[in-house]
Specification:
single chain, alpha+beta, Diaminopimelate Epimerase, Chain A, domain 1, 5 helices
Length: 276
Amino acid sequence: MHRFSQIDVFTHEFLLGNPVAVIHDADDLTAEQMAAVARWTNLSETTFLLRPTEPGADYRLRIFTPGNELPFAGHPTLGSARAWLDAGGTPADSDQLVQQCAAGLIPIRHVRGRLAFAAPALLRSGPVSAEDLDRIARGLRIDLADVVASQWVDNGPGWVGILLKDANSVLGLAPDLPALTGFNVGVIGPYPDGSECAFEVRAFVPRSGIGEDPVTGSLNASLAQWLIGSGRAPAEYTASQGTHLQRRGRIHVQQTDGTTWVGGDTVSGVTGTIAL
């Protein structure tokens, strides 16, 4: 038996964010068992808390989608940190905790009352080839002229970022998901000045075995690095995601001293044990 938690992330109200299943004290489980649990939960990600193996880490995390293992993902990072703390975890540093994962050591701290992770460096950036952009536009069922800007923004899951002219264009997308096979695509568009949120975001992830992810920390981290770095977004803003899926995700971004912090509220929705 293992302790089991399900945390709703990027929401202060249960059922409106993105859930992550967390299996505690999972050092005795094999990768095959972890993959089987992830297929069974059928959530966008299931995580496994393990003893750290690197100096400076408070715990180690493995992250699985129903289709594959990821080196890093954002909402599982925040949800797993919340689950670890709720289970009595005490970080070595009172100012922050440190997660070890395949992408390295990820600092997590409280920013304005919310857990926030430091965005990892991009593994791939730069322009999207004309051939890839044409395939993505056809998969999104939009004209190339509708794409304001595009960029590889991969921090682990393989993201391609697509900027559209406004939030309504993002909400109106009805993609051909099979046509996007081979890509994980994040689409973002701005709301008018003075709106509650600065941007609307959607994440289409056929590579990970799901269609559309409700609220996506890794994508928002990499989009923020791209858009703030290129002057298309302010150094601090709130993004909305999940609207099309009847969720109300809110992602709080703040870039200070060259570090991009991505934060959100977390709600513990399910606790118990799982028989493995």
